[in-house]
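A reminder from the course coordinator: this example appears on the midterm review sheet, so study it carefully.

Given structure:
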């Protein structure tokens, strides 16, 4: 891909610009989804790359950072997040994250966790893949983490966030349906894990997948709402519309470095403005 081919010179130019422009301190949030085992090496290299740069913060440190309590750092620290709650996330935490001592934030959908076997595969196909895949097209091993696996991550110092009840596109919902997806989700997480989560990530993450109504309901129950719109989180970023960088582990390393260092931010100025206009 052309953008992959140009990522190395682009990265060199970006770093030179950063040295002279002194950007504001920023927290970057990385967003991953299902991480099958053949991507574990790429995840391992990504964690190394981030540690050589701004390093990782834990979810608790990110909360403090976003509340303005943490000291400003030269390089942007990163928070690692995973959406959808695939069982591969639990395995990646065990095998890869533990080796690096990285604590991450896992966004789950309680209504889909509660489904078993074939019903869950149908749920993943219909809601998480948004109908692009049928249950038969999913990899054979595709399943979501069980409540035991989610609780185990929580016990090991990772954090669990809400990703709506059943992964519906919130911009299409109103009233009771919207409340159930947003508020019902935290009720179940509280009952399962013993405490409410301050974190919400809305499904699909795009600017067209969220509305002013949905953000108002989210803000009534959660302290932080993470989008999937790329960009830095600075002191000026509202906590209801946090930015995140989606990571495709199949991309070349220079391209991933470019994403982590904010090289694609300029392309997302319009969605960021539209997101801010919703609050
Ligand atoms: Zn999702």
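Designed residues:
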């Amino acid at each position: 891909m052309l953008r992959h081919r140009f990522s190395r010179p682009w990265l060199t130019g970006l770093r030179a610009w950063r040295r002279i422009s002194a950007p504001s301190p920023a927290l970057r949030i990385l967003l991953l989804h299902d991480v099958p085992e053949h991507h574990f090496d790429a995840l391992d290299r990504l964690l190394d790359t981030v540690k050589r740069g701004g390093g990782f913060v834990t979810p608790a440190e990110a909360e403090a950072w976003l509340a303005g309590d943490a000291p400003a750092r030269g390089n942007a620290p990163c928070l690692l997040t995973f959406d959808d709650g695939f069982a591969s996330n639990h395995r990646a935490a065990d095998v890869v994250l533990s080796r690096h001592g990285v604590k991450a934030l896992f966004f789950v959908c309680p209504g889909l966790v509660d489904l078993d076997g074939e019903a869950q595969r149908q749920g993943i196909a219909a809601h998480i893949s948004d109908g692009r895949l049928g249950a038969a097209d999913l990899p054979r091993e595709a399943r979501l983490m069980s409540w035991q696996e989610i609780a185990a991550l929580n016990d090991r110092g990772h954090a669990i966030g809400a990703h709506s009840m059943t992964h519906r596109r919130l911009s299409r919902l109103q009233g009771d349906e919207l409340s159930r997806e947003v508020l019902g989700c935290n009720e179940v997480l509280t009952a399962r894990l013993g405490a409410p989560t301050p974190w919400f990530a809305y499904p699909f993450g795009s600017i067209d997948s969220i509305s002013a109504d949905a953000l108002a309901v989210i803000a009534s129950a959660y302290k932080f709402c993470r989008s999937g719109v790329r960009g830095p989180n600075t002191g000026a970023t509202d906590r209801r519309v946090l930015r995140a960088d989606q990571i495709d582990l199949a991309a070349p390393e220079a391209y991933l470095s470019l994403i982590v260092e904010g090289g694609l931010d300029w392309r997302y100025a319009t969605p960021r403005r539209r997101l801010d206009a919703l609050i």
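The CA atoms of residues 77 and 136 lie 40 Å apart. Residues 27-277 form a domain with the TIM Barrel fold (CATH 3.20.20.370).
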